[in-house]
Design goal:
Elements (H helix, E strand, L loop, with lengths): L7 E10 L4 H11 L8 E3 L5 E5 L4 H7 L13 H13 L10 H16 L5 H8 L8 H10 L3 E8 L7 E9 L7 E3 L1 E9 H6 L1 H6 L7 E5 L8 H9 L2 E4 L7 H13 L4 E3 H4 L2 H10 L3 H4 L7 E7 L4 H13 L3 E9 L4 E7 L5 E9 L11 E7 L9 E4 L2 H8 L8 E4 L8 H8 L7 H19 L1
Parallel strand pairs: 2-6, 3-4, 3-8, 4-7, 8-9, 9-10, 11-14, 16-17
Antiparallel strand pairs: 1-5, 5-7, 11-15, 12-13, 13-14, 15-16
Helix pairs in contact: 2-4, 2-5, 10-17, 14-17
Protein name: OxPPCycle protein
InterPro entries: G6PDH_assembly_OpcA, OpcA_G6PD_C, OpcA_G6PD_N, Peptidoglycan-bd-like, PGBD-like_sf, PGBDSf
Length: about 450
């Protein structure tokens, strides 16, 4: 599904300004359009403030090329500097430990070549999956502005030399919002600098949010609970949006999300939203009156997912367990080609439920690494009518059906949906805010599983 972004009227192309005059510069734009010869009145953003933290691609590309194994957070720590030096040496460039546009261009060229030649290993695929240059820049912002006139503040942490923070302002109005010679417009503020420089101006960033309106923060990086700017934005925003499909250390970072929820941080995960078709089909499978009681017979769960990121599989298992009141009691990671994980639960009647999570290695990975492939819910009670198989493609269905068992299974295929893409999910998320009780309950169980893993 493709969404056509309507054309925009430019009130102000990107203009470099001093960071302390951003508000006055924006106000001057609106004053100039409040009374003009064309009779067109432009009004300011009136819906919400949208803050996007989006690191430049240096760390993404270094990780995708195997030079860097740390978090993708835009913070130029010792590991990032060492990785830059290693890459500069490998590509016969001047070894400075600093990134610049020439260095980024070289990394992009090497990455595209390695990807085209199939030279990325599974760890590098994880990093490559979090690199989304098409979402960087105005394309996504224009799409959001077309349906939600708002103030967009983009924070672009760089890993080069700390030269303070550079600011730009601009304003655009989607034509389809024009009514009776009035344009409802979106304001853009872009701040570039190192993570340390952005942290130094954290108070100014907070002051740039529109008073009295919701504030959404999209943290397009690994969560960094100890980073001052992260703490500030997480505590002040109405919703902090992350995407666990991009996590470099999925299990540890899922635990971080759980801890943030325990601190009452209003959190939303786009990867959780991707599970909704699977959850809806699972629930629908047990809607018929004759199958409602059979759901209590489930004691075997098998989940296949695209190898490289287990967050979807773990969250789906947490969701099922939270709905059926299962308590996790053991966790084993066998590894191997399918990176097998086994989890045991007990229900309220002390019955044992066993779950297996398998990461299926694929030659070609999709837009989201770790997407679910297939799920099987079944029972050791052969008389129970609970066997259900959900799958996203023919191969996944065949693997689950071939796994054996005397029970007849209900087969449902999850059709790939265009609105599960990141840009559509973030647009939906901007229509709501506040806590998601179902997500919190499911993550609580997922945390219980992961804490067992920590103790092994």
């Amino acid at each position: 599904m493709t969404t056509q972004t309507p054309p925009l009227v430019s009130l102000q192309d990107p203009k470099d300004v001093s960071i302390d005059v951003i508000e006055s510069e924006l106000s001057s734009i609106w004053r100039s359009y409040s009374d003009n010869d064309d009779g067109i009145v432009a009004t300011r953003a009136t819906s919400f403030t949208f803050i996007v933290y989006e690191p430049e691609p240096t760390q993404h590309l270094l990780a995708a090329l195997g030079f860097y194994t740390g978090p993708i957070d835009g913070i130029a720590g010792p590991r990032t500097v060492a990785a830059i030096k290693s890459a500069q040496k490998a590509y016969e460039m001047e070894v400075t430990g600093k990134s610049n546009q020439d260095f980024i261009h070289k990394l992009q060229t090497e990455f595209e070549q390695a990807k085209a030649n199939g030279q990325l290993n599974e760890e590098q695929k994880v990093a490559a999956g979090s690199y989304s240059p098409d979402l960087e820049g105005t394309g996504l912002a224009d799409s959001i502005a077309a349906s939600n006139p708002c103030r967009i503040i983009t924070l672009c942490p760089t890993v080069g030399e700390d030269k303070g923070v550079k600011a730009q302002v601009s304003a655009y109005c989607p034509i389809n919002k024009r009514s009776q010679n009035t344009l409802i417009c979106c304001e853009y503020i872009t701040l570039r600098g190192t993570a340390a420089a952005l942290e130094r101006v954290g108070g100014i960033i907070s002051e740039l949010t529109i008073s009295g309106l919701p504030t959404f923060v999209w943290w397009k990086a690994s969560p960094e609970p100890e980073y001052g700017l992260f703490k500030r934005l997480a505590s002040q925003g109405d919703t902090l949006v992350v995407d666990s499909s991009n996590f470099s250390d999925p299990e540890a970072q899922l635990l971080q999300l759980g801890q943030m929820l325990e601190q009452n941080i209003p959190l939303a995960d786009l990867n959780w939203a991707r599970l909704s078709p699977w959850q809806e089909l699972t629930a629908a499978a047990f809607d018929p009156p004759e199958r409602r009681s059979a759901v209590l017979e489930i004691d075997r769960v098998t989940i296949d997912y695209e190898k490289g990121n287990a967050t979807q599989a773990l969250m789906f298992l947490g969701w099922v367990a939270s709905r059926l009141q299962w308590k996790p009691v053991s966790y084993e990671q066998e590894g191997g080609d399918y990176d097998i994980r086994r989890v045991k639960f007990l229900n309220d009647e002390q019955k044992t439920i066993e779950a297996e999570l398998a990461g299926v290695p694929l030659a070609d990975w999709g837009d989201v690494l770790g997407d679910l492939i297939s799920i099987k819910l079944s029972s050791t009670n052969l008389q129970a009518d609970c066997c259900t198989v959900l799958c996203s493609g023919t191969t996944g269905c065949m693997r689950m059906e071939a796994s054996g068992g005397a029970q007849a299974c209900r087969i449902e295929q999850v059709t790939p949906l265009g609105d599960q893409k990141t840009e559509h999910l973030i647009e939906k998320q901007l229509q709501r805010w506040g806590p998601d009780a179902l997500y919190q309950e499911s993550i609580n169980v997922t945390m219980g599983i992961l804490k067992l893993a920590e103790n092994n």
